[in-house]
Amino acid sequence: MNWFRKKHNPSSGKEDLSLKELLNICKESRDFIFFSQGDVFTVSYYKSMVDTTTVNRDILPVLTRNTSLSLDELKKVLPVESIEVTGNVTDIQNKLLNGNILVQQPNSDRCMLIPATSKEKRQITIPENEYTVLGPKECFVESLETNLNLLRKRLPIPELYVKEIIVGKLTKTKVVVVFIKGIANEDIVNTVINRISNIDIDQVIDTTYITQMIEDNNSSVFPQLIETERPDRVAGVLSEGKIAVLCDGSPSAITGPTTLVEFFSAFEDYFLTWHVASFFRLIRLLAVTFSVMSTPLYVAVLTFHYEMIPEDLLYTLISSRSGIPFPPILEAIILELTIELLREAGSRLPSKVGQTIGIVGGIVIGTAAVDAGLTSNVLLIVVALAALASFTTPVYKMSNTIRLLRFPFLISAQLLGVMGISICFAFILIHLLKLKSLGSPYIGPVYPLRLKDLKDALFRLPFSQQTVRPFTVLSEKPVRFNPRHNAAKQTDKDIDE
After folding, report:
1. Phi and psi for 37 in degrees, rounded to 5?
2. With 50 as the cut, is the pLDDT of residue 6 above it?
3. I need a surface site. Which of 132, 288, 453, 465 has the fewest CB within 10 A?
4. Residues 130, 134, 137, 140: is their CA dihedral positive or negative?
5. What pLDDT, on the 0 to 100 scale, is given for residue 358?
């Protein structure tokens, strides 16, 4: 075993094995198959990585019928594409571990590698996290080839480029950068490729690993790249000049550069009329503001600024808080933590059980807390509405950020009241002004102000008015279409006329 560690250390990044030593190590695995056809050739492969039907039907019969042929001649008669003949041990190891069959002849210093990978994958299903009533019902799966197929089906153009990078010393994960040549900015594309290429880590399991390592500011609580499971959304942002990153084994894609307002825009907005979509976006922004500010304002007003409360409402608050042994800040933190506990418990349990725990637990605990005099019914309503408002955020990572932001605002409200809330908001605003997404301003098009980009930011105007791509992506082809063509079509007379 000490010899194995010395000769084959996967974390060292060095390859000092001979082919014979490599095969001896592989033979120690239960699923490794090694057999010889007399003195003519030997066949080696991992049974768990290859398609046994292809091996027994297309490869082994041809090998047994053509025992007198050389490897180069066998390559021509085998009914398999991408066969490689090489003597490089590193290539042999990589191919063997990726589902290739190794064929050796005794008098040759080269080997033949025959692709026969078993492609196990789940069926394309309905999106779970980004479900929409209207629009397509397909989502990404864990197969990289299937995900690329879903993208090319929506963007059947030769300008759709796919650059592959292998990341992870142990996992050897395939990561691809997808963009449209001639539309995407080359500097941003090169930035993404360089950041991914410079990742030095032993394992990459999911796109979330990539996201955390290529973001501009890893210490920020705000997500700077959007992760989506919808191929139609990825196709849409690619046509805007943005870049997508997909990872083999991950059912989601990363898109960027992005802005803060995009995290509050559901892709279903583009399937609705622009009036309805704009209204829903404003509702989400107001809901997020209420979710973050409502509980801190309650604490600040009751602690420092009770003279701001109308007289009629003051009597209600006094009666609801009579007999409560805790100050407003402690009461609010207890309820906020209870809500977070119910959320976390519901998300970790099976879906049906989790929904039941969330509903029943919220009703039972809330009613019991009010009856026991541990909290006021007014604050219970405020905290419940704030939790409900946070669910309006379409992107899951941003909803987590909103949940976390309430606690620093609560502490600031307890220390300095409304002034503390203002100071906390100022610090967050300064942080957002400094934040970037792949080098682009994070709070654009609000700052720096880009009036043309506002057509699809806080609200969505009709498609006929969105004639240019977002300025933040610095597209090499900023104009989407000529608005004069649409204007000419609208002025055409009716057939009856």
Report:
1. -105, 80
2. no
3. 465
4. negative
5. 66
Instruction: Provide the token pair at 128.
Output: 């779970």
Percent of the chain whose pLDDT exceeds 70? 92
Range of the domain at 348: 271-441
Q: Are residues 226 and 94 in the same domain?
A: no
The CA-based angle 385-222-164, given to 5 degrees, is 130
pLDDT digits 0-9 by tens, 136-161: 888 999 889 899 999 999 999 999 99
Cα separation, 153 vs 319, in Å, equals: 63
Same domain, 307 and 370: yes
- Domains in the chain, number: 3
407 and 278 assigned to the same domain: yes
Nearest Cα neighbor of 24 from 47, 38, 3, 55 is 3
Q: What would the pLDDT profile of 52-71 be if each residue is shown by its tens digit?
A: 888 888 888 888 888 788 88
Q: 263 near 228, Cβ under 8 Å?
A: no
Q: Is the pLDDT of residue 16 over 60?
A: yes
Asked if residue 187 and residue 158 are part of one domain, the reply reads yes
pLDDT of 4 reads 40
Model confidence at 488: pLDDT above 60: no
Measured CA to CA, the distance from residue 188 to residue 441 in angstroms comes to: 13
How crowded is residue 158: how many other Cβ atoms within 10 Å of its Cβ? Answer: 6
Helix axes 328-348, 377-390, angle to 10 degrees: 40
Which of 433, 473, 397 is CA-nearest to residue 191? 473
Cα separation of 251 and 434, whole Å?
31
Whether residues 62 and 167 share a domain: the answer is no
Note whether 190 and 253 are same-domain residues: yes
pLDDT at 352 over 70: no
CB atoms within 10 A of CB 19: 16
My answer on whether 360 and 420 are in the same domain is yes
pLDDT at position 367 is 79
pLDDT, tens digit, 9 for 90 and up, residues 218-264: 889 999 999 999 999 999 999 999 999 999 989 999 998 999 999 99
